[in-house]
Amino acid sequence: MKQTMITASIPAHTVHQFREVLCWPVQLMPLAEGATAQRHWELLARGGEGNPWRRLKDRFLSEELEFEERHYKEFVAFLPYVQRFVYGESQSLSHDAEDVRGGSAIKIFRRRGVAALRLVLREGEAPVTLAVEHIELWFFDDINVAFLKVELSGSDLPLAIVHDLLYRFGRAYPTGWDDDGHGKHNAHSTEWLDAAGAVLAASDSANQSKFLGYTRKHRSSGISAHWDFLLHPLVLDPSEEEGLLRYRQIEFHRMPLMAFLSVDDPRGMSREDWLRLGLVATLHPDEALPTRDPDVAEFEARFCYDRFWTDSEAGPNTRFLCSGRAFIVVGDAGAEYFHDPMRGILAQFRHQYVLLFMIAHFHRAALLVFSDRMVDAVHDLDIHLSQSISRFRRRVYAGFEAFLRFTHRYWFHELSERAHVQALYRMCSKHLGNDDLYQEVKEELKDMSQYLDSNAQRQQSTTIVRLTVVTVFSMVAAVVTGFFGMNLLAYADQPLGSRVEFFFIVTLITTVFMLFTLLYSKRLSDVMDVLADDQKSLGARLSMLGKAWQRKQGKS
Fold first, then answer.
1. What is the DSSP letter of 349?
2. What domain count does the chain have?
3. Tens of pLDDT along 304-327?
4. In a 3-state reduction of DSSP, which class is residue 546?
5. Residues 7, 147: contact at Cβ < 8 Å?
6. Closest by CA position to 260, among listed 338, 170, 161, 149
7. Residues 271, 321: one domain?
């Protein structure tokens, strides 16, 4: 019955060439207390037994790797400051010796051993097998964020199956269970396979007791077994499992996705087909189309980029759908340029578009991590403990420093001078709300900085008041001794022992006087304020001091 519903809503188009890319951001936990910028990737680079990750070589430096036209076109698609962020820069013969120029800010690791993905989308359906093109981990300098990037490919798949696959695959954990005990919205089963077809890991979304127990114990969502396997030796931070690196989830369990669909007749797809593809991250395949929803009513204006969509025989008939969490390219399988892996849209999809999608989501992930760090700092603040205030000050200043590096190294609005690349980047960033999130984090840091500044000024004011009181009361003794002269008591002619004894007695008396003045500096300051109030008569001022003294005596 469910399969009939899907087929009714999506006609039997065929996707001749299919690609899906998942980009899942995770927050890396600090390696050392108090450190801001940490090199998590160095631990992964050491390898060791059981570590399936190997760092990719720099294509610009390694003679073993070819530098082809598709790589060149990827490079020149971006503006220079984006190029320096993504690819790094080389040494200049005339550059300042102290200006050390390095490689890319992105460190990429690739996982070995996983060759295919086998999915059963719904109970009773035939399995779908996709080839695993790449499984990678992307690290970023100065930011405790990593991305798991998974690229899959398939061919000659019904559009109904592709749509259901895009909706169900790429969920870190089930959000609930149906009456049969299967995870809602998840694929019925998911298996990673090696080159020989053996199962390496399988999903466990039906294991309700596991997820309930984990959440109750750790107050955090667990991860499905097949994703946990893929990330190893990275482990969830709250768990007791030992791992090389620890991570936390940043936000939604639904991983951001990209898809490339080469369809036999894209012009024959109905508006509902486009709607369900474009809103695949939020609209259930079995759900009736919510026609009154603004996202549906204004779908073409909000989520479609139709610069290359002519809806004519001459073409081109390539349509971009972008909702922020999903980026989908649909084109004509009969157009050779569309699926050309070297110069066509497929090459651009795997290079330029993946990078712009990754950068937009990196911005969001980094900003959410900054916000989480500030919330954690405020949560631990106890204004009654000086140690807590000092720790809070260090954490805020460290966050401010990291945010400053992020702003000047990674944050930008213009990505490319090419109109369609820039337009797609703006569309993705807008739907993710990156600009608003940036301003929110900036204001949070500004508020915390102002609090620290006002607290420091308050402490300085208190210190000045105390020093003023001590100075005023010390002035009496200073004037008296100055009037009588230093030789009022002729101790200069006394024996050395007597002089030393008298020196320590005077020092002790002076110290006690100073301590007494400091201890009661607040009360003495109040006395000075009352006496200095020339708006009242001397009798009224003395009366106020008497009443204040009586109140203090009554309290004691």
1. I
2. 2
3. 999 999 988 888 999 999 999 999
4. helix
5. no
6. 338
7. yes
